[in-house]
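so im writing up the methods section and need the VWFA domain-containing protein record in one place, dumping it here so i stop losing it
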Amino acid sequence: MVTYNDDEPIQVTNENITTGQGVMVDELKAGVVQVKIERKKDVTNEETKFPVLVELTGAANGKERMGVDIVAVLDISGSMDSQHKLKKMKRAMAFLIRKLSPNDRISIVKFASQADRVCKLRQMTANAKVEVGVLVEELRTTTNTNTALGLNMALKVLNDRKLKTGRAMAIMLMSDGVQNEGPKAEFIPLGDIPVHTFGFGSGQDYKPVALEAIAKNSIGGTFSYAEVNDSETSNLSTVFSQCLAGLLSIVVQDLKVQIEPQEDKVIKEKTKSIIEKVSAGDYIKTTNPDGTVSISFGDLYQQEIRKIVVDLILPAVVIKKPVDTKIISVRRFFTVGGSLKNIRAVASVTRTATPSSEESDALNAEILRIKTLEKIEAAIEKAEGGDFMEATTLLTDAQGDLDDAEFEEPNASIDALKEEVDTMLGYMQDQDIYNKKGRPFALCSRTSHGRQRFAARGDDVKNIRSFATPRMDTFLKQAEAFEENPDPETVTSVEEDEKAEASADPLGNIAPSLIQYLEDAIEALNNIRLIISQGR
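--- predicted struct ---
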């Protein structure tokens, strides 16, 4: 069996020295995961259910970032000749290659009836970009589609590489059609490698369900789709750009969150919260015998957010006056530059006979998003069975819930969700429009919300921006300009993007450290307050 351990090392070049990229991989320890725990300030002293929102945000100090190893898996089956799809894919790959820095590496795998590694993992120096770009331009179509061969080869390229420590990795798999040879790729074990899939087909032969299943089978993977038509223009570059923006802004790896119920002492009586339910999308959850729940999120992008709703049961407490009690702890485990971090935060609440606080808008909005997603999933199931009347009824109900929701201030996430449901409703009117637009749109929405990560939804990529990060917004504008004028020299490098971001936000380099110090100080003060409260 062939071993792909010929990946190029990250050499120090003039480009590295100029940009600061690639020479400090093992010293990159700036990434942090900020945490905010939203809940009522006080609650009844009787037994009660009590929801809590845990919000995690990826942040980084300085301009250093993790280098990323990407394997682009490209469909060159015969159907790629139609609608200029191969040409469009080559154009999108030119944008992708241009954005990479000398701290990044890329390997190209092509597949049809067979799979072939077009190039090994190559460090993206200026010369390598030109050479890899030529290899992509030389791709030609052939017969049939064996997605499993291409995916397995990409997995082997990443698993066999010599340089792994402190480096992020991902597979970007692009296809326009249905697998008609080999085993089903959606059942291939993917381990800890994120796989992002992209569909750009149409008609009866296009089966996005398999592409969505592959993405969902990986940690943090997403399914996106691009619009293609008979013209020579498309939005394929914009669709690719959104995934790439995330991969080029990974701040932590292997994020795991441990939510633990807390035991506390009220007067002389011990009391302990009970975790009834944890909602965190379709990420892997495990529950220990002591009630602790662990969630594995994988990589986290700069300014990307993960939200967790924790439904607690708080036991009754006998008190004569208000008292503060601990309810949960949130421990974050993650890796930065090969170094494991372990940070803990504890949340408390005041138990009182006369509670007065209300749920926060953020918590209510997330609960509403989860309920809406449940209706979207039910609507997809009905549409797949051909029951479009029931599918539209479910989405109309979801519309009503979103319209009836009241918040103290405008809520951008709910506004985006309204736009999404309205669009989906239009795509579920009949079988024809569902096949063409409804199915890929709905599957993108499902995986995007399940992962709390942006996924491009065809020509709605500009309008529906749920979970998009600022870097994604920047890349979107650049990719749109590139589609108008596909000259790689007009595309700014990721290093230039980072400089522009630093200039626009001078405090961005130090803010994560300051926030972490504040979190530590707040936790210490809360512990002191608990001691004083319980000792009164």
